[in-house]
Amino acid sequence: MRGAVIHAPGDVRFEDRADPTIQAPTDAVIRMAVTCVCGSDLWDYRGINAVTSPTPMGHEYAGIVEEVGADVTTIKPGQFVIGSFFASDNTCEICQAGFQTSCVHREPVGAGGAGGAEYLRVPLADGTLVATPEAPSDNLLPSLLAASDVLGTGWFGAVAAGVQPGSTVAVVGDGAVGLLGILAARELGAERIIAMSRHEARQKPATEFGATDIVTERGDDGVAAVKELTGGLGAHSVIEAVGTQESMMQAIRSARPGGAVGYVGVAHDVTLPGEELFYSHVRLLGGPAPVRRFLPDLIDRVWRGTIDPGKVFDLELPLDQVAEGYRAMDERRAIKTLLRP
Amino acid sequence: MRGAVIHAPGDVRFEDRADPTIQAPTDAVIRMAVTCVCGSDLWDYRGINAVTSPTPMGHEYAGIVEEVGADVTTIKPGQFVIGSFFASDNTCEICQAGFQTSCVHREPVGAGGAGGAEYLRVPLADGTLVATPEAPSDNLLPSLLAASDVLGTGWFGAVAAGVQPGSTVAVVGDGAVGLLGILAARELGAERIIAMSRHEARQKPATEFGATDIVTERGDDGVAAVKELTGGLGAHSVIEAVGTQESMMQAIRSARPGGAVGYVGVAHDVTLPGEELFYSHVRLLGGPAPVRRFLPDLIDRVWRGTIDPGKVFDLELPLDQVAEGYRAMDERRAIKTLLRP
Lengths: 341, 341
Fold this sequence. Notes:
homodimer, seven-stranded mixed sheet, six-stranded parallel sheet, Quinone Oxidoreductase, Chain A, domain 1
């Protein structure tokens, strides 16, 4: 088969890779229906994470089950399935508490046959994959794919930030996760959603997904703007969807005492000042989103047409043009690129 | 009147101070029945916080209302009352959300007439003070005083750490707050309570307050011991009651993914590594305990005899011997000193 491989910063190639096979009796192999480029992959593409050897890329996936191992009981060949970037058994204590991305048996999906390819091996298939009620129509594919990562991640951000009916929510970051954090906050009943976005092209989708206010300032000025919109108090809930020192501090300082930050931007070189945090009274919860916790609900919402997170894909390319998909996101010409094998 | 004043590290004196008076129509003045030395005052006593001028000390108090301002409506002269170290209006949005120590009108109690004295001015009396059903018997005084700070702080640590019936809880720190965190965890239904304590003299009260296991190791060894006691996963909830870099990291690393740390040790020179925190999946909430949120419930539990947090006082002195009270705590001869005017 063929798939995406990064060789060096800025150098993603579509090339021959070994076909994935069943390696453990709990594995499944799926034929990719759609895949995409993740914003977190840009850390490699931009050379911020070191690329030391050619590495398969991509970890968002939805497709048809081709084959399952002997111990797989609930997932069947022919089903259309969606999974998350970490495989999980979904039965251990940590999974049962809803933190499947820290499952005691977790494995990264895509190791040795990553998502940006024609086929994918998924470990722990029963615990990882969720099947749709039947084969989806083509127009649902982008939204179902979004559930695999960016929607589930934005959703976790909103849940971790404690969004409730009536909440005032601020969202730091206007990439795909931030935009779908807005959608999640709206679905969870937020009354006011402040999108912190300085990119005009992102403000329109932010508003479509549910933002009621746009704050274009960043850092301390952004915090001051959120405070002004919230009677001086700050937001009840803040979704952090960037992962830098500036964005984390902007998030913490935008939350009111007793409020919470759900941080889902992959943290890079972030250190939090303990004394400021202590006196802030802001609750923190974040990390790799346990998308599996939310998948059945998210698939159901997509299936019923309640939400349309697939709108976050504003560029669609054949999978063999994956390199252009990366370039477009790197250059901010696209929010998120959908790829079709 | 006379009261405690710190002049320099190690130099606490009992000396004449101006009598507190009603300064705002929302004030009350109370005559102290009991007061005490707070572990957090040792930061000044040990010279870790700078002492730049003679400063009244003490912020834990319980006593009889002497006089109230014209706008005080619920608190009456003659009532026995307990309050917390921050005055709060108890009506603003932040108070209503249970974070009275971040009240938009908060004031430190004791500014200009601190708690280690014969009389005390309490601002925002209606929002700050809670009266007992009637005059308490003498044997209840230590426990009612404990509710003013150390019990309420340990309780907040347990609540912030999400302690629930059946939880496994670890407690970092064996001072008065840590010990009463153990009591709080037990009252909230924890099944297993691991006290992290290396001081033999503290292990006995820890067990009396509800600890089921003692871990004497600190740092990484302490974390390993907690993991071993919890099937490799870590505790559901960890109460941090020290405030140092080592104790915070010990707390975070002792919690399982999806678990939580309630940190109530006043943070000193703590910086948290963002990436480790991100991948830990540990929820953080802490800060100055909103004791006022819990006071009615805590007073009720003391009144009914359900809990006896006053046992945390293992030294009792007349107030004029306050200097010896500090020395005994500094030298770890006492966990906590009760002072009677």
